[in-house]
Design brief:
Subcellular location: Membrane
Helix content: 10-25%
Structural class: mainly beta
Distance between the termini: 71 Å
Keywords: Membrane, Signal
Strand content: 35-45%
Number of helices: 11
Protein name: POTRA domain-containing protein
Largest sheet: 17 strands, antiparallel
InterPro entries: POTRA
Length: 776
């Protein structure tokens, strides 16, 4: 501001210093234009489409006006058809004001083209029709016949239930980005002409360029949550079309508008949020189609959202896993992204009516095309990749396309690493054959892993034992699921492999990693050979009941020397306690409960033990308060302590509770007790180590019965935990031991734990683990 004041002061001094004009001489004033000569007629065209390339201006050739080869130059511009706006307002808006000195000169083709282009791009007119009037004795006149977009004085919304009226109005009367908000001050570069009369010593500033946009006061708009009447920018049909597209992008896939604009400017919009008329199922017989509709749980008459379709297909997969979504021979946009447009109809009395017209369904083209995908489109595709899978819309009817599921084959890598086998890579495979009539579904399971001869590992002075422990490990099984009898699995397994009963302590991958890194697998292994026959009933969504018969032969294994680990290779081999060898026969009874088990949760495992659940947990379990419990009773017979066969029994109870206390906080409690009578060594209880009394040594406390309680609290990425445990040895319980620790959480299962023991052996250095599997 100070620079401008100084500039005008200098100009005033310059004017005072000029010689007086001759009173008898009358010469026209000389105006000095402060702009360069080549820029005097150039103004930015802010009505351009924001997405239009800049080079398009050079593509459009100048307007040519001629009749029979004779060029015509309009002498003036006339505007016709204005109703709400005045002639002066429109001329000032496009830079054709009659007060502009340049308007007194003849129009050029370039200037006429500029005026027409600005008129068309203001968004104020539904039609801009230029005409030439060529009188015989008078100059040529360029007539522009204009049809203003409708003016809305009041808005009424009908039919709203879930949608907020203010949100719809904001989108309906949303102004483009080139319009500043009502609270923002316009910060635009103004191009003006500075004119200096050197003879008279006067200065004038003339804004030679038109305003960059129509004034907000002319337009229908929302300001501070209130509707302001005015002209609908772009027209009512375009505003309704934009609002409808936004509504469907928000998930209201069947939404539609009907509207009436009365001659007095009152706009009545009736909103149909999109109620489902019916659900049709194609690809299966009628009796199965009824089951599909029941699984989808979509009720006619309900407002249908995109998220409803996604959840419905997830429910279908969970309740009827033998069916899958079928490919639909439709264009991608016609599945759940049906296109529509608003059609305008006019009555004789001036009333305008608007209705929604759906675009016809397009068939998918069987041709190879090249396409360009930007980041926004990629994000939308990633977020809604499966939204329309197997689903199409026919008007307000939902059509679900399903087919019998093809056989599933899954093959997983087994990176086995133990102290008794070394590195033993292998594969595990599952082949599931589905019955389209839902009578019985067959599953074939198999796994093998081969110990490799690496690092010179061996059993000292026992080459035969080294050879035995490097035998091939094999597992195989077949089972059937019979839904009509609620049988989740009925089958048999055969095996000859290296096994452990410590899977409840530490996940497989965690044990393999720490065995390979630090020679600390926190598991004891043995050789198990035999078979298991089993039957499991899922008599309710959250309950399992099962029975197993086991016929196994157990064989002790010893740790190889030297340890095959990346670090601590000079440490002694990890202790692997001997087992009670011989043939054992036992029956296992099982009862399980999981409140958060989804209907489609898999049941059973190739590596099944009485200490672990048969519910297969995955990332799709709901994050909510949950209770899980496991109760197994094993009664068996096998070699006893004195050589003769003896009976034994073992009871395992493991209950855990998770309670969210906030958006990213929660409490987890666990109580596990296990024990029995006349137990073989491999089935005896022991506490100490990771997740079985953290902070203490691995299986530091051994006995026939154990009791372990755990409490954890986490908020955000940080957690605290405490473990308390005791074992019973010879009819007496040991002193309760306490372990304390903290966790850094990196996700649902990945965590870094540090733990300290609190007894007389406590040290300042904690035990630490980075774990990838949550075992309880």
């Amino acid at each position: 501001m100070n620079r401008f004041a100084l500039f005008f002061c200098l100009l005033a001094l310059t004017a005072v210093a000029q010689p007086a004009t001759d009173a008898g001489t009358s010469e026209p004033p000389e105006f000095l234009d402060a702009r360069p000569a080549d820029a005097r007629d150039e103004c930015p065209d802010d009505y351009d489409d924001e997405d239009e390339p800049e080079e398009d201006a050079s593509v459009l050739a100048p307007l040519q006006l001629n009749v029979d080869g004779r060029p015509l130059t309009p002498a003036s511009l006339e505007l016709h058809g204005l109703q709400r706006l005045t002639d002066a307002q429109v001329r000032a808006l496009i830079g054709a004001s009659l007060t502009d000195p340049r308007a007194q000169t003849l129009l050029t083709a370039a200037r006429a083209q500029t005026f027409l282009r600005r008129l068309a791009r203001t968004g104020l007119f539904a039609r801009v029709e230029p005409r030439l009037r060529v009188p015989e004795q008078e100059p040529v006149v360029l007539e522009v016949h204009l049809e203003e977009n409708p003016t809305v004085t009041a808005v009424e919304l009908e039919g709203l239930q879930d949608i907020q009226a203010r949100e719809l109005l904001e989108e309906l009367f949303r102004l483009p980005h080139r319009f500043p908000d009502e609270d923002e001050e316009e910060d635009e570069d103004v191009i003006a002409t500075l004119r200096i009369d050197s003879r008279r010593g006067t200065l004038s500033v003339v804004r030679s360029c038109p305003p960059p946009r129509p004034p907000r006061e002319w337009l229908a708009r929302m300001e501070r949550g209130e509707f302001r009447p005015g002209i609908v920018l772009g027209g009512t049909a375009q505003a309704l079309d934009r609002a409808l597209e936004d509504l469907r992008d928000d998930g209201y896939l069947l939404s539609s508008f009907t509207a009436t604009l009365h001659p007095d400017g009152r706009l009545v919009v009736t909103v149909d949020e999109g109620r489902l008329e019916a659900v049709d199922v194609q690809g299966v017989p009628p009796d199965m189609a009824a089951r599909v509709r029941e699984a989808l749980d979509l009720k006619p008459g309900d407002v249908f959202l995109r998220s409803d379709a996604t959840r419905a297909m997830e429910r279908l997969e969970a309740h009827l896993p033998f069916l899958e979504a079928a490919d639909v021979d439709d264009d991608e946009d016609s599945k759940l992204r049906r296109r529509a447009r608003i059609v305008e109809e006019r009555d004789a009395d001036g009333t305008r009516r608007y209705r929604t017209e759906e675009a016809p369904r397009k068939k998918r083209r069987r041709e190879q095309v090249e396409f360009e995908l930007n980041l926004r489109q990629l994000v939308e595709w990633w977020g809604h990749e499966k939204d329309g899978e197997g689903i199409t819309l026919d008007g307000k009817r939902l059509v679900v396309h399903v087919r019998p599921r093809r056989p599933d084959l899954d093959v997983d890598l087994l990176p086995v690493h133990t102290q008794v086998t070394g590195f033993a890579p292998g594969l595990a495979g599952h082949l599931r054959i589905w019955d389209p009539k839902d009578r019985a579904h067959l599953t074939l399971d198999a796994a093998l892993f081969i110990p490799l001869r690496l690092g010179g590992q061996r059993l000292p002075d026992d080459p035969e034992g080294t050879k035995r422990q490097r035998r091939l490990n094999l597992l195989g099984g077949v089972k059937a699921q019979v839904p009509a009898q609620r049988l989740a699995e009925l089958g048999v397994q055969g095996y000859d492999f290296t096994d452990t009963f410590d899977r409840w302590r530490l996940g497989d991958i965690d044990s393999f990693i720490y065995s390979a890194l630090l020679n600390r697998p926190d598991r004891e292994y043995f050789r198990r050979k035999g078979f298991t026959a089993f039957a499991t009933w899922r008599w309710a969504e959250s309950w399992l009941t099962g029975i197993e018969y086991r016929g196994d032969r157990y064989e002790s294994m010893r740790s190889f020397t030297p340890p095959l680990s990346l670090f601590r290779r000079d440490s002694p081999p990890f202790t692997n306690s001997p087992v009670t060898e011989g043939r054992f026969k036992s029956v296992v009874l099982r009862l399980e409960y999981a409140s958060d088990a989804p209907p489609g949760a898999k049941v059973g495992s190739l590596f099944r033990t009485p200490e672990t659940t048969l519910f297969e947990r995955d990332d799709h379990w709901d994050e909510r308060a949950s209770l899980r419990g496991l109760l197994t009773l094993e009664v068996g017979e096998g070699p006893g302590a004195f050589g003769a066969d003896a009976r034994f029994w073992k009871l395992v109870s493991d209950v855990s509770l998770e309670v969210p206390t906030g958006w990213e906080s929660g409490v987890r409690l666990r109580v596990r007790t296990a024990g029995g009578d006349d137990l073989p060594e491999q089935k005896r209880e022991a506490l100490g180590g990771w997740t079985a009394l953290r902070g203490h040594g691995f299986k530091e406390f051994r006995g026939d019965v154990s009791l372990l309680t755990t409490a954890e609290y986490h908020w955000g990425w940080l957690g605290l935990f405490a473990d308390v445990g005791s074992v019973r040895v010879e009819e007496a319980w040991t002193e309760a031991r306490l372990g304390l620790g903290a966790s850094i959480l990196f996700g649902d299962d990945v965590r870094f734990d540090v733990a300290w023991r609190t007894d007389e052996k406590a040290t300042a250095t904690p035990e630490a683990r980075l774990l990838f599997v949550q075992t309880f």
